[in-house]
Amino acid sequence: MKSLVRVFGLVVIAALLMMALTFSLNKSEGYSGGNTLTIYNWGDYIDPDLLKKFEKESGIKVIYQTFDSNEAMMTKIEQGGTTFDIAVPSDYAISKMREENLLIPLDKSKLPNKKYLNPRFMNLSFDEGNKYSMPYFWGTLGIIYNKKMIQDIPFTSWNDLWRPELKNQILLIDGAREVMGLGLNSLGYSLNSTNEAQLQEALMKLKEMTPNVKAIVGDEIKILMAGDEAGVAVTFSGEAAEMLDQNENLEYVIPKEGSNLWFDNMVIPKTAKNVDGAHKFINFMLNPANAAQNAEYVGYATPNEAAVKLLPKEIASDERFYPDLDQLKNLEVYDNLGKKMLAHYNELFLEFKMYRK
To answer: Is 334 annotated as a binding residue?
Structure first.
């Protein structure tokens, strides 16, 4: 009997030790509360000095983790095994998270710095009234090209991508919404179209571009364009800004027919443990001085109207990344098309990629 009691005691002790270890690991992976704030963001998407500044001003310790896709971020939050107090999803992901009850409504009384945000970037379709999110960065989808390699094309239109002299020169971003969207835009249609005839017309036109497509890739676009490995690419403005810093021969344009206007916004996930700290952090990042510092460090456009005035003139006046309101009129945010239509977009994009082979 004593042996059984001893064994039972050892089992209980081992179990308690495992629980303590699990708690410790979970805490390091995102469990928060009290005096800790866990932030889930894209990689290299904040000035680290701002995290230190927030810790010093608030007395709250920051745990910072990163993701590389909206889908990965949503899956981890939906599973609920890891707690995050702040996340920074993109527009369409916010719409999905809202529908799936994964977000906590914001307490606007705790966000006085929201007054500095540009009204043009508020109350958009993916979060009407900004009930769940506050803008963090924004940008566009456009064309980047090498002026030295391709000298005779002005690149003002998506239709320039179909020019025969661009054979085997174009890098396309590996995204169904982006590629189908440019196909739709080139025909004068909305990039959120659900009209089957328009979608099929866009697919057929994209197939005609096939001889010009060198590759359909992701992050490799930055390396290939910076290294003069391709003449043209379709990419996001923030990525383009990095490429321009690396290669003086590159230029970025927003096609005249229109394009995607994207947003990454700050939200508070449903599983947050430090909701008050989350509001403090959002308000901290909406401070014009902090928003300007972050924009200058990251290279993406800030939606903070007061922050733009604090940026160096060469940045704030660059219409490639801070286009005027007339240019913005032709830009569209990706709507949440629903699982069925999104799957259809993916099918059409896959057909395009298979057609290339």
So the answer is: no
Q: What's the topology of domain 139-261+324-356? A: D-Maltodextrin-Binding Protein; domain 2 (3.40.190)
Task: Tell me which of 335 and 195 has the higher pLDDT.
Answer: 195
pLDDT, tens only, 17-47: 555 544 444 444 444 456 999 999 998 899 9
Q: What does the domain layout of the chain look like in residue ranges?
A: 28-138+264-317, 139-261+324-356
CATH of domain 28-138+264-317: 3.40.190.10
CB 267 within 8 A of CB 132: yes
pTM of the model: 0.80
**Average per-residue pLDDT for the chain:** 90
Q: pLDDT digit string (tens) for 136-152?
A: 999 999 999 999 999 88
